[in-house]
Amino acid sequence: MLANADLHIHSPYSIAVSRFMQPEQLLAGCRTKGIQVLGTGDALQPVWQRGWEPYLENEAGIVIVPQCEIEDIKRVHHVILAEDLAQFSQLRDLLEGKCKCFEMSGRPHVYLSGEEIAVLAHEVGALVGPAHAFTPWTAMYAYFDSVPACYGNEKIDFLEIGLSADSSYGAAIPDLYGVPFLTNSDAHSPYPDKLGREFNRLKLRARTAKDVLACIRKGTIEMNAGFFPDEGKYNRTACTRCYTQYSLEEAAGHSWRCPADGGIIKKGVADRAKELSGGGESRPRPPYVHVLPLALIIQTMEGASSPNTKKCKAIYTSFIAAFGNEIAVLLDVPVAEIRAIHPKVAEAISALRSGTVTLHPGGGGKYGTFSLG
After folding, report:
1. Is 111 helix (H, G, I), strand (E, B) or coil?
2. Closest by alpha carbon to 69, among 51, 48, 96?
3. Which residues does 334 contact at the CB level (< 8 Å), separation at least 6?
4. d(CA 267, CA 215)
5. How many helices (H) and strands (E) does the chain have?
6. Facing residues of 181 across strands?
7. What are the phi and psi torsion angles at 81 (to 5°)?
8. 7 and 109 share a domain?
9. Structural contact between residues 217 and 129, judged by C-beta atoms closer than 8 angstroms
């Protein structure tokens, strides 16, 4: 069976996360979005871990995969996936003394290297890989030029691409040949413009967390879906203060300081991926479908200040009432049927499906935008 999976989210125990990120709201958000497999987020946090226990079996039939993100001694972030919550209790015991307090942080900082974290994750039978690997902050390729430089002799089980990249960015990097790519939301709120904004389509034999992990191990990922890379907020090399974009040559010439306001110029994911590829052969990957949250499409077509205006929310609700979930609207519903509800949204979705939108790239921490024509 095919299932849409979002395997990286957070809890209110992490920084800048909505208090509404609670199991019941998340399950409701999955039904609206069209997600059938969900990571728990922050499974090393004891209270959050216990809070998920009543929802592992749920009426919606959503498969819950125990998951956490962890920060190593170099500030590189890693995603860990397990079959059951008990494995995170075991991992927490193994990490005892390497973290100040698991109760205080959903995404704990531990005094271990990436290799040491991966060894311990594998010891409890979990999977591990770099989170948002290409992002210029707290990511593997922000600090290292190769997988072994970060993980030593320990293998990774997957690589999470991040919002500012797609599969093509890693397809020619020799280190990553044979490593499955994951596309996840890293959501900090349960609302449809965040939850499931990137997802994976997996071919499962059974609706269990065990089979989700088996699918990743075997690389049987049918499709990745996510932002156009240009929409990500770190896609282009740009100033982190005024967001002026630069070529690598210009940035180096300015010693990575913006001449306009003195802000730091941060190397973009597009430039970083080109460096890492180094002329390597681009290997085939599962299809990558570029999508944008329906709420964002509605906001843009309505010229609204937010996707949460009363009008935008009413339009969104009408789509869900008509077609069941958001992913169906984005990928499957005929444009003619979408047009019957909102002609401008139909025009935008048609352009997105055909790749004929005009993209205005993001960089330096500012998301990109799109327009028609």
Report:
1. coil
2. 48
3. none
4. 34
5. 14, 15
6. 159
7. -125, 140
8. yes
9. no
Range list of β-strands (E), the chain: 2-6, 37-39, 63-65, 67-71, 77-81, 127-130, 159-160, 181-182, 199-203, 221-226, 238-239, 265-266, 288-290, 358-360, 369-371
- The bridge status of strand 37-39 relative to strand 63-65 is parallel
pLDDT in tens, 135-145: 999 999 999 99
pLDDT of residue 279: 78
Give the C-alpha separation, 295 to 315, whole Å: 9
The residue length of the chain stands at 373
Q: Which residue has the tokens 């709120």?
A: 189
Task: Specify whether 157 is located in the same domain as 298.
Answer: no
pTM value is 0.96
pLDDT digit string, tens, across residues 141-173:
999 999 999 999 999 999 999 999 999 999 999
- Where does a domain end: 229, 252, 274? 229
- Type of residue numbered 186: D
